[in-house]
Every structure is written in structure tokens, then in C-alpha cells.
Amino acid sequence: MSNKTAIRQISESLAAFRYKFLRCRFLVNLIEASLLTIGFKGTTALLEFLNSFSKKHTYLHAGDDGDMVIIDRYYNIFYLISLGGRFKGRCLSRSLAMQYALKCYGLRTDLRIGVDIHNGNFFAHAWLERNGIILNDHPINIENYFVLPLDKLNSKMQFV
């Protein structure tokens, strides 16, 4: 492989990453606005409806290793979004956006929402799991949270 070919492939890969990053960042902010206007149940119903129309991505499915490549790619994108300052969205909007993006590849994940009371203050946090493995957070960050059953949520909550 020539140097020009290698540079072109790297450039194309970076352009594809930038495109996915911008799409995901836009999706996070749309979900954030949706959560504020129509709430959690309405937003999840809207995402399910949109997913039925979205183009399903195909990739060479290599079992768990292939799945982990896709998950790792989106973990990196959403990690960069979480560092993004003013328009990074909350943990719930980032988790819902990542779940939607992974669902486009046929990868199912479980949304977890946990609550904690510390020094009289109420905290809530959201993250994704797949087969019991935390995808977009670190176990230390969620170890004190009590996981809520999603089917019981029906009101607006303040997420950190």
C-alpha cells in the first residue's frame, strides 16, 4: 500500500468519524429538547417510531468482537460529546441517543436509570448496559445508585 493510499484512507476514516460525531451531537440535543417538552415516555416512543424508519446499517457481523467494535466507536463519540460544555446534553439524553445509534446496527441495549440521596440531595443518573456490562459509564460512578424499573417512570425527573 502506498503512502498516498494510506493517507487517503486515514482522511476518509476521520471524515466518517466527524460525520458520526456531528450526527450524534445533533441527536443528543434533539432528544434533550424532546425530554423537556414531551417527557421520558413520549421521547422513547418517538425514538422507537423513528427507528422503524431509519436506515439499518449493515456490517460484517463478527459476533461479540464485531459488536464491541461498533460499541467502542460510539462510546468514544459519546464520551467526546460529554466533554462538550454547553451543548453536551444530560446523561439521559446521551444514553438515549447512544441506544438509538446502536439500535441502527441491530445492537440491543438496556437503559438504566438510578437514583441516590446524598447529604439530603436527590440525584438521578442514566447509563446503558448490554448483557450486564456498562457501556457508557464507569462502575464507580453508578455503584451507589438504586436502579429504577423503567416501566414505572412516568414523570419528569432532574438528571445529573
Automatic annotation (TrEMBL):
Highest rank taxon of the organism: Bacteria
A Pfam family that the UniProt record links to this protein: Transglut_core3
Entries under InterPro entries matching the protein: McjB-like, McjB_C
Domain Microcin J25-processing protein McjB C-terminal: 86-146
Name of the protein this chain belongs to: Lasso peptide biosynthesis B2 protein
Organism: Mucilaginibacter straminoryzae
